[in-house]
Amino acid sequence: MTASKPLRRRVVVTGMGCVTPLGPDVATTWKEAVEGRSGVTEITRFDASAYPVRIAGEAPAALDLGDLPRKDVRRLDRVVALALAAASEAMAQARLEPTDGARDRIGVAIGSGIGGLETLQDAYKKLLAEGPQRVSPFTIPMTICNMAAGYVAIRHGLRGPNLCHVSACASGSHAVGEAVRVIQRGEADAMLAGGTEAPVTEFGLAGFGAMRALSTRNEAPQSASRPFDSERDGFVIAEGSAVLVLEDAEWARARGAPALAELRGYAANADALHIASPSTNAEGAQRCMQQALADAGVEPAEVDYLNAHATGTPAGDPAEARAIRAVFGRCADQVAVSATKSMTGHMLGAAGAVEALLCVKALETGVLPPTINLDRPDPACQLDHVAHKARRTPIHVALSNSFGFGGTNAALVLTRGRD
Predict the structure, then answer these.
(1) What local confidence, expressed as pLDDT, does residue 189 receive?
(2) How far apart are CA 68 and CA 401, in angstroms?
(3) How many C-beta atoms surround the C-beta of residue 280 within 10 A?
(4) What is the full DSSP assignment across 130-163?
(5) Are 152 and 192 in contact (CB under 8 A)?
(6) In 10 A of CB 275, how many CB atoms?
(7) pLDDT tens for residues 109-123?
(8) pLDDT tens across 80-98, in order?
(9) So which residues are the catalytic ones?
(10) Band of the pLDDT at 25, cuts 50, 70, 90?
(11) Which of 239, 267, 279, 378 is deepest in the core (most CB within 10 A)?
């Protein structure tokens, strides 16, 4: 592996937390992913019988919010509650209990593509039915996208940089990557970074359904999300959150925190083409992967594993496959590729953070989660797919892709932890 850029702080992952359609924590999510289980079901959170799409990836309804007062819990939008649960698990694994003097050096960066959609929806219903005087004063605070990052900082007393990246389905990856930059610049010693999304609402389902972006396999929810498959018909909307504790490697070593993985490279760019459709040659995605690898000081031939953005849309999957082949060239068939949205559904602004977390687990365990429902691989998406069953093989370098509406792209390069 080639040397990284000199005089730049190394950034390591020391803790992780998540809530996903596969489970309420990292252990359960990872177990279900390795076993190739789907978290997609018929929607239970509201009556979806009148909707063309009636399936989604719902996270567990009950969340572990510790000793947060019940009156505060009732006021939270689900997008904030999901992030609070994930952040608490991540801090516990990292054994991050900051002293007062350290709090100014620990920040939060949690992205969300939509924010508090359920709060906005419910407030508008009340406005129409009962008038403006009945709208809650918590409507705006619980609707805005940065409230998850803000609430996590308040909950844990973290006074460093507090950021929210709103870049559609790349939000979580952008939050992680930009948090790395904050630490590398010396503006913080640690960051809680990730994404959160709670779009499984009447308004969310209607809006994405109107775009005809969603799978309509209502009679077979668990086989609806089909990245790279010839019979894919759209993505499955899902909710969840993932938070990583990122630390300067020296700072982590000084407090005895083991490095689970290293965030070695990051890049962000734009297609500058269309609000929703990728370019046919996927030039932006290709360039983003190349920039991330260059930032990491990693050659394409050194990458063992790639967690693809791969949502299961007709246009997006082959475009990403072409970009992967363009980046890796003759060694493209040596890179194992998973599309874990086949199991989780598409968690939008949380997806990139969840997939970075799964890359860390793959680096840790030498187990690559599968792409399920890949029954008839699309010839236009030919890659070394980890199809149907997990693959056991030691890996050293992983790449995670995230692409979002507006033509925004992000790529993260992760390597095995080293103290």
Answers:
(1) 97
(2) 35
(3) 11
(4) H-GGGS-TTHHHHHSTTHHHHHHHHHHT--S-EE
(5) yes
(6) 8
(7) 999 999 999 999 999
(8) 999 999 999 999 999 999 8
(9) 169, 309, 346
(10) very high
(11) 239
Residue 105 C-beta-side C-alpha neighbours within 13 Å: 17
pTM score above 0.90: yes
Burial class (CB in 10 A: 0-12, 13-18, 19+), 130: exposed
Question: What is the Cα–Cα distance from 83 to 265, expressed in whole angstroms?
Answer: 24
Chain-centre distance for alpha carbon 164: 14
- Using CB atoms within 10 A of its CB, is residue 45 exposed (0-12), middle (13-18) or buried (19+)? middle
Supply 216's token pair.
């309509």
Task: Give pLDDT tens digits for 156-191.
Answer: 999 999 999 999 999 999 999 999 999 999 999 999
Kindly provide the b/e burial profile for residues 307-326, where b requires at least 16 CB atoms within 10 angstroms of the residue's own CB.
bbbbbbbeebbbbbbbbbbb
Give the pair of three-digit tokens for residue 315. 């246009």
**Which helix (H) or strand (E) segment is 284 a member of?**
helix 283-296
Phi-psi region of 381 (alpha: psi -120 to 50; beta: other; left: phi over 0): alpha
399 and 413 Cβ atoms separated by less than 8 Å: yes
CB contact set of 241 (below 8 Å; sequence gap of 6+):
18, 19, 20, 59, 79, 82, 83, 85, 86, 110, 148, 194, 195, 196, 197, 347, 350, 353, 354
Give me the pLDDT at residue 273, please. 87
Kindly report, residue by residue over 285-299, the tens digit of the pLDDT: 999 999 999 999 999
Six-digit token string for 253: 């070593």
C-alpha 416: how far from its chain's center? 19
CA distance 85 to 66: 8
Each residue's pLDDT tens digit, 314-338:
999 999 999 999 999 999 999 999 9
Q: What is the amino acid identity at position 118?
A: E
